[in-house]
Specification:
The complex is a heterodimer of chains A (121) and B (108). Chain A is mainly beta and 121 residues long. Chain A has no helices and eleven strands. Classes of the chains: A mainly beta (121), B mainly beta (108). At the A-B interface, strand 5 and strand 10 of A face strand 4, strand 5 and strand 10 of B.
């Protein structure tokens, strides 16, 4: 069974940093791209960042480019999102998601349950 | 950035009837289009990828069609568990991957 479990969310002041983690199981981790997708309270889905199976290809939404850094550790079956210079509009539930395509980057199929990030003074 | 526009914002349909949801891309995304279902308090669930391929375990009453810039998700006979929010997503030329704003399917 594919499982993705996010952690690291919480309340943080504007301008500060936070690091999210996602531990996965149930599939061969180093064969699939991974994504972070967020959802502000009562709003729709927003793709944040993605990383290919071998970390050679990385992408960010314009809204987070230059502030967020995605990374993965294939030895630990873990995905990370380093979030710097946080703003109030980064407040959201952050989902970790597995890509559907082996050795490719396309769209997420399996999702975690999310970790909530609240940016407020 | 490719902008995805879904219509209508809210769709009211009776159980047992057909629902048709639309998604338009600001430029061609070929067939690189997916559909998700999201219920309150739950993570999104992938329904369709490649514009028309059902994901694992998705009932046959869900079908997708279209290519280029115009796409449709059809639910042939609505069940009570189908009332939810539906999102389309393009993945043609990442980054970025972009979602539509969602269509809320409610009981009439």
């Amino acid at each position: 069974e594919v499982q993705l479990v996010e952690s690291g969310g919480g309340l943080v002041q504007p301008g500060r940093s936070l690091r999210l983690s996602c531990v996965v199981s149930g599939f061969t981790f180093d064969e699939y791209a991974l994504h972070w997708v967020r959802q502000a309270p009562g709003k729709g889905l927003e793709w944040v960042s993605g990383i290919s199976w071998n970390s050679a290809s990385i992408g960010y939404a314009d809204s987070v480019k230059g502030r967020f850094i995605i990374s993965r550790d294939n030895a630990k079956n873990s995905l990370y999102l380093q979030m710097n210079s946080l703003r109030a509009d980064d407040t959201a539930l952050y989902y970790c998601a597995k890509d559907i395509t082996i050795f490719g980057v396309s769209l997420p199929d399996y999702w975690g349950q999310g970790t909530l990030v609240t940016v407020s003074s | 950035e490719i902008v995805m526009t879904q219509s209508p914002a809210t769709l009211s349909v009776s159980p047992g009837e057909r629902a048709t949801l639309s998604c338009r891309a600001s430029q061609s995304v070929s067939s690189n289009l997916g559909w998700y279902q999201q219920k309150p308090g739950q993570a999104p669930r992938l329904l369709i990828y490649g514009a028309s391929t059902r994901a694992t375990g998705i009932p046959a009453r869900f079908s997708g069609s279209g290519s280029g810039t115009e796409f449709t998700l059809t639910i042939s006979s609505l069940q009570s568990e189908d009332f939810a929010v539906y999102y389309c997503q393009q993945y043609n030329n990442w980054p970025p991957i972009t979602f539509g704003q969602g269509t809320r399917l409610e009981i009439k």
